Amino acid sequence: MFEDILHNVQKQPSLVHCITNYVTVNDVANMVLASGGSPIMADDKSEVEEITSICTSLVINIGTLNARTVEAMVLAGKRANELGHPVILDPVGAGASSMRTETVKRLLKEVRFSVIRGNISEIKTVFEGSGATPGVDASEADAVTEENLWEAADMAKRLSAQTGAVVVITGATDIAADEHKAFILRNGDPMMAKITGTGCMLDGVIAGFVGSNQDKVLEATAAAVCAMGYCGEKARAKCEGTSSLRMHLIDVMSSLTADELERGADVESRI
Amino acid sequence: MFEDILHNVQKQPSLVHCITNYVTVNDVANMVLASGGSPIMADDKSEVEEITSICTSLVINIGTLNARTVEAMVLAGKRANELGHPVILDPVGAGASSMRTETVKRLLKEVRFSVIRGNISEIKTVFEGSGATPGVDASEADAVTEENLWEAADMAKRLSAQTGAVVVITGATDIAADEHKAFILRNGDPMMAKITGTGCMLDGVIAGFVGSNQDKVLEATAAAVCAMGYCGEKARAKCEGTSSLRMHLIDVMSSLTADELERGADVESRI
Amino acid sequence: MFEDILHNVQKQPSLVHCITNYVTVNDVANMVLASGGSPIMADDKSEVEEITSICTSLVINIGTLNARTVEAMVLAGKRANELGHPVILDPVGAGASSMRTETVKRLLKEVRFSVIRGNISEIKTVFEGSGATPGVDASEADAVTEENLWEAADMAKRLSAQTGAVVVITGATDIAADEHKAFILRNGDPMMAKITGTGCMLDGVIAGFVGSNQDKVLEATAAAVCAMGYCGEKARAKCEGTSSLRMHLIDVMSSLTADELERGADVESRI
After folding, report:
1. Which cofactor does it need (chains A, B, C) (predicted)?
2. What is the pLDDT of residues B13-33, one digit of tens each?
3. Inter-chain CB proximity C243 and A249 less than 8 Å
4. What is the pLDDT of residue C206?
5. Nearest CA to CA, how far is B40 from chain C (Å)?
6. Radius of gyration of chain B (CA)
7. Residues of C in contact with A257 (CB under 8 A)
8. Which of A144, B48, B152, B194 could form a disulfide with B76 if both were Cys (CB 3.0 to 4.6 A apart)?
9. B3-270, which class in CATH?
10. Structural domain boundaries of chain C?
11. ipTM, 2 decimals?
12. pLDDT at position B89, please?
C-alpha cells in the first residue's frame, strides 16, 4: 500500500530544512539521511528564508524554542508557504508552558502546515487552544486506548478540517488523519518511549516522504509513521537496551525496502 | 545498601528539568530515561519557571553557558528553591574562564543547591573561589589518589558545610559527602574518561534519584554515582571502543536492577 | 609515512577549542577524544578568548552559525592568531546562503587559518567568493572525479597560495594541499556520506593532529584525512546500517595505531 510512496522517495529525494531542538537534532539529521532524504539545519533569521528556498520541505519543532528561533520559524514558514513547500509542525510540550502554547497559536495563525504531529496531550492542546501537558510526554489521563481510539481519530479529523493539515497523533497506537479519512497504525514497540527523539525523528521522516510525494500528503505521512513503527519493532528485537535500540532504529531505516514495509505494515483506515 | 533508593526511583519516577550544554544533552536525556526518570530540556527565560514548576528536580550545568542561558539558570533555580525541588549544580570548567568562575559564584549566591558535582579541579575552584582548571578535564596536579583521598573528602565535607549541598567529586575514585559523612565509591573504569558527557549524564541520574528520594539526598546521590560507575564497568567489558562504550553504558543502565547494583557496589563510608 | 605524526599526537596531546554547530557537536567531541586529543566547546564572546588561550588549537565550523556565535568566532580566531595556535575553518554550506558566504569572507579577512576544509562546492565558493551550494552537501555538478581530480587539486593549491592555509577538499576522493604540494587520499567509503558529521568530526581530528605537529601542517592534515577514511573503511566492514557505521567509526579511531594506519593508507602526492 505504501510502495509507491517509497519509490518516489528514492526517485526524488527531499532536501529537508529543519528548525528543531538541540536535544535530538543529530538523531533527526541521521534519520532523515537513513530514510532517503538530506537534512539541513539552519535557524538564524538572517538566512532561514534563503535556506528554505533551496529545500523541498520544512520541519518546525519547538522542542527547545527561544525568542530568537521563534522568529526564524515564522519567517521560514511563511517563505515555505509562498513556495508551496510542505511544512511540518511538531508542537513539543504545547500545554506545558504558556510560551509553548502561545508560540503554537502564533505559528498556526501565520503559517499553513501540511502536517501537525504530536502526542495526544499536545494535539489536544492544539485543538482546544489550551492544555496541561505534563512535560514533553503525554499525560496518562489522555492515553489513547482501544476504547477511545476512534474518538481520538475524530479529534484528528476535526483539527485537520480546521487547519488544512494532516494530523498525526503518536502513542501506543498511532493515528494519521485528514478531514475525510483516518489511518490507524499499529506498528511500533513500547520501548521506543524510553529513548528521546522518536517523535522528532519521525518529523524528519514525514518531511522527507511528503516532500517526495506532495500530491499524497496523507498517504506519505501514514507511510512514514508506519515505517518508523516497523523499524522500531525490528530494532527492539535486536537491541540490548535503550541506546542500542536507538542505533538499530536508524540502522534498520537505512536499509528498509518498499517490499519489506509492505509486508510489515499493520494499517487500518476508515472514512 | 542502595536498594530502597532504586525502589523509590521506580515507584515515584522523577521529571527532571535540565538546563544543560548542547554537547552532551542528548546523552543526558537518554540517560535520565534509562535510569528511570523523564527529562525535559528548556532554557528560555520566558518559560523556565513554569517548566521547572511541573518537574521534580532541576539540573543546572554550565558546560556551554552563554549570557542568555545564565539568566534562565538563575530564574529556574530560584523557582525550584521556592517549590522545594532539589537542584543539582555542575560547574563545568569552573576555573577555566572568569565567566565560568563568576557564574558559579553568582549561582551559589542566588540559588540553594542540593548537590554540587564536578571533577577535583572544578570543586577546588568552587571551594576556593578561584582556580585554573585546564579545560573541562581535571588538572593532573589536582588528581585524587589513595594518598590524598581523605584530604579531598574533607574538602567535600567542608564545602558541604558552607553550601548545604551534598558535594560530589568524580574521578578515578569518586567521593560523595555531606557535612557529616563521606562515601568513597570505587566503581567505574578509566576508559569512561575517553567519552564526553559521563559527568553530565551522572548529573541527570543524580537529579532523578534525588528527586525520588528527597529525604535521603546523600544516599541517593551516592547510589547514582555508584550506579554510573558500575554500569561503566559492565559497558567496558562489552565494548570495542569508545563509542560502543557510551552505547553500552546507557544500555546497561536501562536494565539495571536494585539487586544487581547491591552486589556490584564498591562503597566505603566514613564519618 | 604518517607514523611520526601519530607518535607526536600521543606524546603531546592537543586541547582543541571548538566553536561548532549543535548538530554534530557530540560526535566531534567524542572523535577528538578517540583520536587522542581533548575537546572543549565554548562559544560565548565573553569567554572564548580566555578559553582559546588555554588550548592548543581552534576549530571554527559555521554549520549552525548565528549572529551571536559569529562574533565569538572572530574574537577567538584573532586571539588564537596572536598566540600562534593553528586555526581550522570549516565553511559549512558556504554558497547556500549569503549569510554563510559573507561570514566566510569576513572570517578570511580577520583571521589567518592553518587549514580550510570543505566539500568541493564549499571550497569553490571560498575560492571564487560566491557560489550556489545546494545545502550542506556538494553539488553533483561539482563532483570530483578521476578526470578532474588534478584540476581540483590545482584549485586547492591556488587557494592555499592565496590564504596561507592548507586546503582540504573531501569527497569520494580527498585532496589536501598547500601551495607547493598536493596529497590525493583514496581511503574512505561512500556510505560515510549517509551519516551527518563526518566532515565536522574530521575538523576535530585535523585540529588535534595539527596541534601536536605544528611544524608539519600539511602532513598532519593529510594524516588526519587518511585516518578518518581508513577508519571509515573498517567501520563499513563491521556495520549493519548508518548508525552503527558512526559508532564503529569512532570505535576504530579510538584504537587506531600508527602501524595500522601506515599499512592501510592509500596516498599519492604530487608537486
Report:
1. Mg(2+)
2. 999 999 999 999 999 999 999
3. yes
4. 98
5. 18
6. 17
7. none
8. B48
9. alpha beta
10. 3-270
11. 0.96
12. 98
